[in-house]
Amino acid sequence: MITPMAIRMIMVIITITITTSVTTRTTTAIITTTTSTITTTSIAATIITTGIPMLMKTSNPDAQQGSETPRPAGMSDSEAASLYRLMTWLSPSFPVGAFSYSSGLEWAVEAGDIVDAASLRPWLASMLADGAGLCDGIFLAHAHRAASSGDGAGLARIAELASAFVTSRERHLETTAQGRAFIEIARAAWSSERLGRLIAPCETTIVYPVAVGLVSAAHDIPLAPTVHAFLHAVASNWISAAARLVPLGQTDSQRVLAELEEVVSVTAKRSMAASLDDLGSTTFRADIASMRHETQYTRLFRS
Known about the structure:
Blueprint: H1 4-19, H2 24-35, H3 40-59, H4 77-89, H5 105-110, H6 117-130, H7 132-148, H8 152-164, H9 169-189, H10 193-199, H11 208-218, H12 223-245, H13 250-259, H14 261-273, H15 284-292
Helix pairs in contact: 1-2, 1-3, 2-3, 6-7, 6-13, 7-8, 7-11, 7-12, 7-14, 9-11, 11-12, 12-13, 12-14
């Protein structure tokens, strides 16, 4: 026979089981068990093994999620400031005059080398991976490192080499004019004494990629996102020029930019890993296009 004390214990456990969302089937099974002629020990064991896991599961909601407190999402203040400045400096609206240069694309279109999006994409991919894009990325990376370490003499040598490395007169005009405008506007809007000290040793004209690396380092913006954003901006400007020259529709222009995503990413990594001895270009047709643009009869762009 079941003693009165055993019955009271069973009723208490049944109440707890019901309040902790045990299913109707489990509750019915427990009640049926109380009316059967089994020992008190068997009843207690059955209820405890059924009820305790449910009690632990409902009373400790963090057990399944781990004991660590979730970290807040978002960026630090310095990361947000770096992103804001990069997006501003390398935006098409930043007034460095990039819209007026085509890097020789105007002659390539007139010569029939580029006639649509399908022919534009490999031309730009080559310029990025094996031509001006890679070389500019290397100069940017080395200028950024020299500026970050305060190596004024090294920075001056890099600036001089980058200026001498440009393949044509118009390309030299393009990169020096943009470099000068970039530094002047960045200094006016984001004043920095450190930037002035870094510019001082550079006796030659500072070309665009060196200017971007120098200014970014002066504001403690990391190298990797700077190189990536710079190459994206360069590719975007080339596509913008081609859209007006070919012409291309907006959708085709964005398709080309999307197809260049991996090329930009790989070129950025190569730029950061390369030494100055790795500088070189194999995009001879693009270099010739830039030179021949100087004598092109009708022109919309300055390069």
